[in-house]
Design a protein that fits this description.
The structure is a single chain. The protein is an all-alpha fold and 240 residues long. It folds into two domains: 59 residues, Arc Repressor Mutant, subunit A (Orthogonal Bundle), CATH 1.10.10; 174 residues, Orthogonal Bundle (Tetracycline Repressor, domain 2), CATH 1.10.357. The chain has twelve helices and no strands. It is elongated, with a radius of gyration of 20 Å.
Length: 240
Amino acid sequence: MTELVPRREGRKRNAATTSERIRRTALELFSTQGYEATGIRELADRVGMTTASLYHYVGTKAELLTDIMRDAQARLLAAAQGALAGIDDPAARIVRLVHIHVLAHAIFQLEARTVDTELRVLDPSALQEILDARDEYEQLWREAIVRGCDDGVFTVPDASTARLAIMTMSTGVAHWYKPNRGASPAELAVNFSDLALALLRATDAAGRTVDTAALALGDPAELIPLLGIAPPASTADAAR
């Protein structure tokens, strides 16, 4: 009986690996040629299995897309909540939100592109689920900006427009960022948080302009584990 346990665990690991391989391949296809242009047979051929086997691992194509979006949104929300834990200052909260958003869109580019462009193909119930999850995430941004405006930390004519501008520019990273060329995701995150603070006209109690460095929040790379992956080697080495 005890010999069956390792075998079961091995089968579970193999199934998880296969499902992840299918997801990665699906994301490559969805993000480059679109969900509707990607056939289930094409996806099965790419991963080297029959369509029947594909359905066994990930269900229908629509279910696969919904699962990808659900997991992406859940990861982003959990990471943002973790990054904001213990931080009360509105400027610091916006910086942390920008850092998480930019890191996620630079690291999970194919996933981010798919989530951004394929919402329209979801069925109504799945669409509502994803929109509700997205609204919960965006509420963190709304609260931080409104609080900053109320406290006199930010000076913008319209908090909603400011939020949309910052989130849109940060989301765009997924569409143009080239890994291993130029700035790292963490460096990019700092650049974008400085832009966000400038757009919000952030100031301290003395009326001085606030930038990311002044808030002393540390290296954004230290937030990467919140997204469920290991930090870069340099960050891990520095932590030891």
